[in-house]
Design a protein that fits this description.
alpha+beta, six-stranded antiparallel sheet, 3 helices
């Protein structure tokens, strides 16, 4: 019988959507609760920006870029718009999206996959939309 923790450590890579932005930045969005878990706790680097639409179910979204660089306002807006698009708020007008550094996202003890708690969030108001094209292999 496999230990549950062993199973989690050997879980397959997340199935994600990837979008290329200018300046070497990319947006990564999980496709399911389990993929969201992998995006947030395996793919995220501490300084990456993490996004999730407020008040609706949706993808966990990362904005990753060159080490040590700050994202532009436009890159942050685009990542927030992806989070809104990959959520139950897709058909809404402008929606609130929580944004924080990945280091401020944690999993409550015993919580189901995809459930997180966040600190030091800022709210970005955006219209749900995708960047021009999805990166192949996402």
């Amino acid at each position: 019988m496999k230990d549950r923790h062993q199973e989690e450590r050997t879980a397959p890579e997340a199935k994600v959507w990837r979008y290329a932005l200018s300046g070497g930045w990319q947006v990564i969005a999980g496709r399911s609760d389990r993929d969201n878990e992998l995006v947030t706790f395996r793919l995220a680097r501490p300084a990456d920006l993490w996004f999730h639409v407020r008040g609706f179910a949706g993808s966990h979204v990362l904005l990753q870029g060159p080490a040590g660089e700050e994202p532009s306002r436009e890159a942050v807006r685009q990542a927030a718009a992806v989070a809104a698009y990959h959520s139950k708020a897709r058909e809404a007008g402008r929606v609130p999206v929580a944004c924080t550094m990945a280091r401020h996202v944690s999993k409550p003890p015993g919580a189901k996959p995809g459930t997180v708690q966040i600190r030091k969030e800022k709210i970005v108001m955006v219209r749900p939309e995708l960047p021009e094209e999805e990166t192949p292999g996402g």
